[in-house]
């Protein structure tokens, strides 16, 4: 036990001496959580719209002012011809072109219908897709108004099914509420899984592991001495992250904090096992870095950080289910936003527990083999 | 502290083969290859080091010195052969060996971000002892780095690092000390100091196995093993190795040393000719004692100016080169 205490003392000492890593550990949650959720906003705003008005009637004036008033669109140009508008799409100043044909007003009144042309720049798929949907909503709305006007007297209001949506667990449908717990999980993963891997590999790289190996130190003492500090740092990062979430975004976990920490504790053990596994595979920090990067990409894209796992194809859902981060991310959102109880997240506890046992066993088995 | 415990263990697990107690290091027919057998690092290496001996392993880079060290310090498994350190089998009793040996790898392997004092305390704790327990052993060496005890190991000079590494390897009073190229990359003065320290440690009864690529350091060892391409060429005391040089050795030089080298090598009387600094070391095929005159005559016939030829005593390096090519040249009194 005395040996383990000294190994831990040495690890913490080294950690506190490495100013860069130390600063990263605490700046990481502050900066990542402070800036990223604000920058990464999936609410589409500032859609640049080019309008080709071939009609110049009162109706087109009304439509254009309605679009402008919606708050989502910036009318960058009103081009005299479609060809010129297309040019603005090509050089990137406009995202969407709305072409209103000549005799728009006349046809609407006389024929009762008039098609419009909407052209979107599909390079930024999300922006153009959502932008076009917004635009269509505005036009449909305008359509309703027209019918009332057209009839002169609104005797029979057209039958419309009006749906009122209420958003549970995130009443204002804030994107930050969705993304902040996700980024927090990602930070915990970085610290627990990758910093630990790099640290062990560093001992290999500079050769100190040789010197340790010829001492009577037991393998478990050495490994535990490596893992415990990162477990502690993970818990600190979680604490800093929760504070940032509260102070910057007003996100106060609805569920039990104790439950959150307990789950994070188990998750970190699983992740440390993963880090240990990476360190047994790699011989130097560069290799470890690359392996870590490979997994980080998968974690970010497949864990449901940005996109819902449920809307992935079946094979992708299977991969996602095989990542410890997916389950943890889901459970963290459940606890923070929904206030889920221990009973609700019990399956996640079991899954993370299994990951913890499995990954650590695999790592130790692999560690033995390479000796 | 460590000793009584390991003695007890020794009694409990007596090695299957009777290993002489006065030979702390025994290697028997060790072979090791890398890359699935394509690179042979050691082939059939056998070696015995006696108690209290300062034993040198001399050979160029890539001769297999580090591989042998790693096998003896239980860091690597040999493909074939057996080895015992302090009477313990390196495979079966590796735990006991790790308690009783000190190892200083060729590459500086202490924590650069810990101070001198912290490194020392850390390694003492790993061995279950304290810096004070065996302070007498390291006192002379540690006194030299004591003024820097609060400095981080990474900020020490090469010689200082070496001394700290030696202190850390000695902190548990090992019975056997393994030093893998301790003087590589260290300045001449520090190297001399280092060898003096090793002599002092020898006085304390510690068996030392040290490797070096510097041939001139060989004379400081009690016995040496010359190693090349994973094979032991010869094991003996340095003086007996040089003394067994079978023929006369001449040193020659001239105004144009390079043309002299080419000329001598093309002369059928010459057995071997190598450049040693500003001199050429030459042996002749049929030497009847008038070699000096023969070489001088030959050089004159090739129009060399300022020719000097002397008879010299062979060094370890001469012996090594002759032994390394011993499949073509005879060595020792037996031939």
TrEMBL record, chain A:
Keywords: Cell membrane, Membrane, Transmembrane, Transmembrane helix, Transport
Compartments, record wording: Cell membrane
Keyword Mitochondrion: no
Membrane association type: Multi-pass membrane protein
Segments traversing the membrane: 21-40, 175-201, 228-252, 258-278, 290-309, 345-365
InterPro entries reported for this sequence: ABC-2_transporter_component, ABC2_TM, ABC2_TM_bact-type
Residue ranges of every copy of the ABC transmembrane type-2 domain listed in the record: 145-370
Main location: membrane
Family membership noted in the UniProt record: Belongs to the ABC-2 integral membrane protein family.
Protein's recorded name: ABC transporter permease
Organism: Niabella pedocola
């Amino acid at each position: 036990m005395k040996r383990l205490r000294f190994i831990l003392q040495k690890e913490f000492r080294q950690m506190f001496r490495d100013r860069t890593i130390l600063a990263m550990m605490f700046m990481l949650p502050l900066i990542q959580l402070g800036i990223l959720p604000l920058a990464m906003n999936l609410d589409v705003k500032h859609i640049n719209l080019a309008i080709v008005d071939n009609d110049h009637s009162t109706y087109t004036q009304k439509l254009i002012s309605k679009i402008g008033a919606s708050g989502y669109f910036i009318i960058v140009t009103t081009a005299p011809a479609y060809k010129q508008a297309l040019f603005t799409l090509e050089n990137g100043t406009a995202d969407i072109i709305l072409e209103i044909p000549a005799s728009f007003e006349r046809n609407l009144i006389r024929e009762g219908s008039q098609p419009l042309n909407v052209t979107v720049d599909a390079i930024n798929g999300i922006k153009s897709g959502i932008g076009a949907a917004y635009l269509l909503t505005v036009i449909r709305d305008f359509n309703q108004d027209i019918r009332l006007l057209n009839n002169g007297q609104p005797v029979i209001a057209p039958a419309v099914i009006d749906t009122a949506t209420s958003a549970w667990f995130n009443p204002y449908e804030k994107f930050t509420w969705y993304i902040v717990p996700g980024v927090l999980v990602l930070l915990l993963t970085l610290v627990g899984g990758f910093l630990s891997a790099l640290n062990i590999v560093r001992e290999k790289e500079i050769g100190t592991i040789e010197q340790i190996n010829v001492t009577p130190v037991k393998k478990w003492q050495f490994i535990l001495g490596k893992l415990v500090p990162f477990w502690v740092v993970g818990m600190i990062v979680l604490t800093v992250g929760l504070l940032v979430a509260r102070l910057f975004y007003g996100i106060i976990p609805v569920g039990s904090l104790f439950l959150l920490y307990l789950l994070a504790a188990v998750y970190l053990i699983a992740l440390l096992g993963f880090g240990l596994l990476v360190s047994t595979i790699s011989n130097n920090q560069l290799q470890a870095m690359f392996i870590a990067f490979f997994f980080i990409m998968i974690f970010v894209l497949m864990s449901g950080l940005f996109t819902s796992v449920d809307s992935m194809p079946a094979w992708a859902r299977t991969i996602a289910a095989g990542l410890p981060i997916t389950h943890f991310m889901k459970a963290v959102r459940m606890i923070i936003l929904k206030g889920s109880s221990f009973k609700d997240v019990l399956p996640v506890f079991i899954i993370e527990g299994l990951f913890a046992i499995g990954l650590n066993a695999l790592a130790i088995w692999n560690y033995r083999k390479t000796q | 502290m460590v000793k009584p415990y390991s003695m007890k263990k020794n009694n409990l697990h007596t090695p299957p083969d009777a290993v002489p107690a006065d030979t702390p290091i025994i290697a028997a027919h060790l072979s090791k290859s890398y890359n699935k057998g394509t690179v042979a690092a050691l082939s059939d290496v056998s070696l015995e080091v006696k108690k209290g001996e300062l034993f040198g392993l001399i050979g160029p880079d890539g001769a297999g010195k580090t591989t042998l060290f790693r096998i003896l310090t239980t860091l690597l498994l040999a493909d074939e052969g057996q080895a015992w350190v302090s009477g313990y089998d390196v495979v079966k009793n590796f735990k006991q060996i790790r308690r009783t040996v000190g190892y200083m790898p060729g590459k500086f392997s202490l924590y650069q971000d810990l101070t001198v004092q912290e490194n020392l305390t850390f390694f003492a704790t790993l061995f279950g002892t304290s810096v004070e327990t065996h302070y007498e052993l390291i006192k002379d060496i540690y006194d030299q780095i004591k003024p820097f005890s609060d400095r981080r190991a990474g900020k020490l000079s090469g010689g200082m690092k070496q001394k700290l590494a030696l202190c850390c390897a000695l902190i548990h009073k090992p019975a056997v000390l393994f030093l893998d190229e301790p003087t590589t990359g260290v300045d001449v003065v520090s190297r001399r100091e280092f060898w003096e320290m090793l002599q002092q440690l020898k006085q304390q009864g510690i068996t030392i196995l040290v490797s070096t690529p510097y041939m001139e350091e060989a004379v400081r060892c009690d016995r040496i093993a010359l190693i090349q391409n994973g094979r032991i060429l010869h094991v003996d005391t340095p003086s007996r190795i040089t003394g067994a040089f079978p023929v006369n050795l001449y040193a020659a030089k001239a105004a144009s040393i390079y043309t002299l080298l080419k000329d001598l090598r093309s002369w059928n009387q010459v057995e071997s000719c190598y450049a040693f600094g500003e001199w050429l070391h030459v042996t002749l095929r049929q030497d009847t004692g008038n070699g000096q005159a023969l070489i001088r005559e030959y050089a004159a016939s090739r129009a060399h100016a300022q020719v000097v030829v002397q008879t010299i005593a062979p060094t370890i390096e001469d012996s090594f080169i002759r032994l390394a090519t011993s499949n073509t040249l005879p060595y020792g009194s037996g031939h």
